[in-house]
UniProtKB/TrEMBL annotation:
Listed EC numbers: 3.2.1.23
GO aspect biological process, one term: carbohydrate metabolic process
Catalytic activity: Hydrolysis of terminal non-reducing beta-D-galactose residues in beta-D-galactosides
Record protein name field: Beta-galactosidase
């Protein structure tokens, strides 16, 4: 008998969530052919929350999932990042790949923990995931392929998707509900209606590959309801909706598109993310609570995006480009914190939105099953500040990198390194030695730089600093087309010129030719093209960083780009902390060889979450790569600090 949720009496049960739905054995997975979902023939409302395993240290997965369950949710949702799991074409990493991010990639362990913590799971395996993540989850080596057309049935693109799904889907298939696992639903692609592609045969191909590789649970798509069925195939997928306001109108639209089928909000945005140079977004608990209640009351199923945002560790942040062009004409990098102002903050601590969620689910969830006790809050420490007493200039850093030689400047993806997969992340350095540079000669970089640059002459920085948000519109960034810089007021011979370009994170939606470095044109000195470049990939892989020698005592008036190093000594078991980079200008922080993330004085955030599992008892090496002007210490706090310049 299908009753609306609100009219059901609470079932006082000592059963777990999993027992409630499976005590009579498993006969069928989730169905969507009635006005509400049924799982194994029992009516279910899916109360889900997004937690991305690749944004949370593995040691914390159980803690975050238990907290999610303790709030009364019955399902966890995660995306799957193709770029991390297939870092080189045909080479897969599910936790033991020996890459810096490997420990975040034990997908099977994450799903096993979800089941142990009494949660169902929703998998959003893309291949495109957006997620404010580097290139929307696409591997950068795809950019090496000629004429590839992303997110379409283009055969070049589909060959790589098929290769990936043939590896991924059999793993996921083992964790399906009807195989005794937690996964009840798969989302195909992601907000396909706004891709501008409208190649629905592509959507069918994705479905077919999934089914051919063992996927048997319910398949859905997700788009803003206003897009109607533009990005989906109603016969093959249930459409779910993404939105954060006006739930009734949005859900009504879904009902109209799919009468007599369940309504579900796949992304109910609990908060939002921040761009460098932008304002700190802040969606209040009142707004969150009001809209969440409207969804529960409707009644509809709902996934809170994010329930726990986590962190864009390393170089893994995405970026926005509202012009949706491949030229990089309106590029905005997203910050490393993916806190998202979600119910659990970046440290896994409780916020008002957590308690609001718990209260509302107690009120509206008709199925009462056992819940764990709410776990304690995490311990945090503000460690004593660390003096960075050693330094290494670019010149010494480059000594331990094997360069690539090229007649013209080329983007990092096209470097013939990493077994033919190019450079994915970090910085790229274009060098010319033995140059004659007349006084007041102008360096011209044709097209746009991707994404910002530092120019050095004989090791001295001569380009402007990217310090304040207003500098985002000045020479040194992709906002300026055909940059020009005067190199020196002296006549120089046998000079060395270096152009250091930062890949500040690839646009995560709407642009697909996301090459990084210099590639839109040539580089000229007083109108003459410069040829025969020595190019250094500056990837900051931990093995390289940990192997650096040649450290010198830091000068008090040092200017970057340079590395600065110090030691954080911890005499007890490490705790979570935040690295406070105020008074530094722009760069990255590296802890024990692992790239923690980016900082920039412009804000809106001045801190980087440093979780305890990245620290050890004893000495920890803190290295900062600063583009411009360093401070002498790195400080630590117990909370994020938001400030803009
Ligand atoms: C799609 O893939 C084929 C390879 O089969 C390629 O030749 C073609 O140019 C690709 N790109 C487009 C835009 O169709
Ligand atoms: C968000 O805004 C509310 C009210 O405007 C304020 O109390 C709260 O401190 C803000 N939170 C953050 C993280 O800025
Ligand atoms: C650079 O060399 C030119 C040509 O020899 C000379 O005219 C000019 O004065 C020199 N400029 C400086 C700043 O030395
Ligand atoms: C940080 O910078 C501000 C302004 O640039 C300066 O007044 C202050 O002394 C600096 N603090 C430290 C600890 O260096
Ligand atoms: C830890 O670092 C301190 C200060 O840099 C140094 O004096 C000490 O010898 C180091 N200890 C170990 C075990 O390496
Ligand atoms: C960082 O710590 C040092 C030493 O404790 C202190 O002097 C300085 O003011 C702190 N800097 C900031 C920006 O808080």
């Amino acid at each position: 008998m299908a009753l609306a949720a609100a009219s059901l009496l609470p079932i006082l049960s000592t059963l777990t969530n999993y027992e409630y739905y499976t005590s009579a054995g498993i006969n069928s997975g989730l169905t969507a052919d009635k006005p509400n979902f049924y799982l194994n023939d029992k009516e279910i409302f899916i109360y889900s929350g997004a937690v991305h395993y690749f944004r949370v240290p593995r040691q914390y997965w159980r803690d975050r999932l238990r907290k999610l369950r303790a709030a009364g949710l019955n399902t966890v949702e995660t995306y799957i990042p193709w770029n991390l799991h297939e870092p080189k074409s045909g080479v897969y990493d599910f936790g033991d790949g020996g890459n810096d991010m490997s420990d975040f990639l034990h997908l099977e362990e994450f799903l096993q923990i979800a089941k142990e913590e009494d949660l169902f799971a929703i998998i959003r395996s893309g291949p495109f995931i957006c997620a404010e993540f580097e290139f929307g989850g696409f591997p950068s080596w795809l950019l090496r392929k000629e004429n590839i057309e992303f997110r379409t049935s283009n055969s070049t693109y589909m060959n790589y998707v098929t290769g990936w799904f043939r590896v991924l889907m059999p793993i996921l298939a083992r964790f399906q509900f009807t195989n005794g696992g937690p996964v009840i639903m798969f989302q195909v692609e992601n907000e396909y209606a706004v891709s501008g592609k409208h190649d629905l045969s592509y959507m069918k191909m994705l479905r077919d590959i999934m089914i051919d590789n063992g996927i048997q649970e319910l398949l859905v798509t997700a788009d803003n309801p206003i897009r109607k069925t533009y990005g989906t195939l109603p016969d093959l997928f249930l459409m779910t909706g993404n939105f954060d306001e006006d739930p009734k109108a949005q859900l009504d639209m879904l009902k109209e598109i799919q009468p007599n089928r369940p309504t579900m909000t796949m992304e109910f945005w609990s908060g939002w993310f921040d761009f460098w140079g932008g304002i700190h977004n802040n969606k209040t608990v009142d707004v969150f609570k009001y809209n969440y209640e409207q969804i529960l009351k409707y009644p509809a199923s709902v996934n809170i995006y994010m329930f726990h945002g986590g962190t864009n560790f390393g170089f893994l942040n995405g970026a926005g480009n509202l012009n949706y062009d491949d030229e990089n004409s309106d590029y905005h990098s997203i910050v490393s914190s993916y806190e998202y102002i979600s119910p659990l903050d970046e440290t896994g601590d409780y916020t008002d939105k957590y308690w609001a969620t718990k209260d509302l689910l107690e009120k509206y969830n008709p199925i009462k099953t056992q819940l764990p006790e709410v776990p304690p809050s995490p311990l945090k420490t503000a460690y004593a500040s660390v003096k960075l007493e050693q330094e290494m200039f670019l010149f010494d850093m480059l000594k331990s990198i094997t360069p690539v030689y090229s007649a013209n400047v080329i983007p990092m993806e096209k470097l013939d390194i990493n077994d033919g997969n190019g450079q994915s992340f970090g910085y790229i350095v274009y060098q010319k030695t033995g140059l004659t540079i007349p006084a007041n000669a102008v360096l011209q970089i044709e097209g746009r730089v991707c994404d910002n640059f530092m120019v050095l002459v004989n090791g001295i920085l001569v380009s402007p600093w990217l310090e304040r948000s207003k500098d985002l519109h000045k020479v040194g960034t992709s906002m300026v087309k055909n940059s020009e810089i005067i190199l020196s007021d002296k006549n120089l011979t046998e000079a060395t010129l270096e152009i250091v370009v930062e890949n500040w994170g690839r646009v995560n939606v709407g642009a697909y030719k996301q090459l990084k470095g210099l590639w839109q044109g040539g580089v000229k000195l007083d109108g003459e093209y410069l040829y025969d470049w020595t190019i250094y990939p500056l990837e900051f892989k931990s093995a390289w960083t940990n192997g650096l020698s040649n450290w010198k005592n830091a000068l008090s008036d040092s200017i970057g780009p340079a590395l600065y190093k110090g030691t954080l000594t911890i005499n007890e078991s490490p705790q979570d902390t935040f690295v406070y980079m105020k008074n530094w200008t722009k760069g990255i922080v590296i802890v024990n060889g692992f790239v923690l993330g980016r900082y920039a004085r412009m804000g809106p955030i001045q801190t980087l979450y440093l979780p305890a599992p990245l620290l050890v008892e004893g000495n920890n090496t803190i290295i900062v790569f600063e583009h411009f002007k360093p401070a002498s210490t790195v400080n630590f706090t117990r909370n994020h600090i938001y400030e803009s310049f």
